[in-house]
Write a structure and sequence with these properties.
This protein is 18% helix and 42% strand. By secondary structure, it is α+β, with helices and mostly antiparallel strands. The strands form two sheets. The protein has a six-stranded mixed beta sheet. Strands 3-6-7-5-4 form a five-stranded mixed beta sheet.
Length: 158
């Protein structure tokens, strides 16, 4: 492991970090086209810079309530192996350099239901959980279907 440069996001009262090298952009929540029969956390698709991006309500995934009505909510677009995904969060606050010495994975064993929590930054006045967007995109139910749906839509547009 080495030092981590991360975008700090907020969901609930907690802070989470997304490695900056996976973050493509931070956007305001605009018109999302819903897709029927998907899990509740999947808000639908939003066109961002010409790309169809599935929007996942990260607040819904973690806490069971939505961030979509919060005026400060932001979409953090991240690149995964197969597609871009947008994570709807309460706020995207800052970019932070986290020293390797402050990163620990102890305590994460309790999070078996959240395999996408990679490590924890144990800082002087705050604790920030680091999220692996790639693992998130592979472990959430419905992501295979949404990936196929986005690919099919791209083909239709060509």
């Amino acid at each position: 492991m080495s030092d981590l440069k991360a975008v700090i996001i907020q969901c609930g009262q907690e802070e989470y970090a997304l490695p900056v090298d996976t973050v493509v952009s931070i956007e305001k929540l605009e018109r999302v086209n819903p897709i029927p029969h998907l899990p509740e956390y999947m808000l639908g698709l939003m066109k961002i810079r010409g790309e169809l991006v599935p929007i996942l309500d990260f607040q819904q995934i973690l806490y069971g309530n939505s961030a979509k009505d919060d005026p400060n909510a932001r979409i953090v677009v991240v690149q995964t192996e197969n597609l871009f995904i947008g994570l709807l969060v309460l706020d995207a606050k800052e970019i932070l350099d986290i020293p390797e010495s402050k990163l620990t994975s102890s305590g994460l064993m309790a999070y078996s239901r959240t395999p996408y929590f990679k490590t924890v930054a144990n800082l002087e006045d705050r604790m920030i959980t680091v999220v692996d967007a790639e693992i998130l995109s592979r472990t959430l139910s419905g992501m295979d279907e949404i990936g196929e749906y986005v690919q099919a839509k791209r083909m239709q547009e060509k």
